[in-house]
Amino acid sequence: MEVFSVIEWVVGESLEGSINIRPPRYFEDVTAAVSEFRDLLDDILTDTGTNISPSATRVEVLESEPNTRNEFLKYFQEITLDPNTANKNILLSKGNRMLRLTDHQQSYPDHPDRFTFLFQVLSRESLTGRSYWEVEWRGEGVCIAVSYRNIGKVEGFGFNDKSWSLYCDTSSYTFCHNRVKTPVPGPVSSRIGVFLDHRAGILSFYSVSETMTLLHRVQTTFTQPLYAGVRLYGSIYSLEFINLK
Q1: Angle formed at CA 50 by CA 46 and CA 51, multiple of 5 degrees
Q2: What b/e string do you get for 22-44 counting C-beta neighbours within 10 Å, with b at 16 or more?
Q3: What region holds the B30.2/SPRY domain (predicted)?
């Protein structure tokens, strides 16, 4: 800096024993340079403080979870199923909102996203915010799930760390994730509601009739977009994603 060069020069001359008396104008120039440097430093500190303050005081506020059916319906997400993921023994209908297990394979083209071993299918829609949907099922049993897109195509929902599932039959429920099975108490219903808050890491399953009963709630961290999934098992039956609009 110019200021320090001037000061160093003056001190250096003093150490050599030759002290020169500078005219008043010389010291006025030094004083002005020091004052300018001080003002510049004040500006830098002020700007730095201004930039840091908002981020240091920002508070992230998360929304509360819905409590009533009407509150859940505010987050209704229409779900349609992706034919490119459907096992060939699954027949899709009603605009790809309904599926049924058949004895005859459908003429779906080969696709790398298709489930080839289990009777499973994923949704077209990726889910990254708050979503709520309901399914109506009939038959011996069904698995209702959410999953990352890159799940293995011979893996069952809930039997890996990329999917979370609720297995429903005519008398009980079982939650499954990463091969860990958890019995779930609650009233058996042919209609199941699913609430997802991807950002907050919340996944909840509800038994839906005249009232909504919480069956199971998951608190975790989701690292990828999720997709609604269904697995059919047992004898002839069907499942439909209900249009709640």
Answers
A1: 120
A2: eeeeeeeeeeebeeeeeeeeeee
A3: 59-245
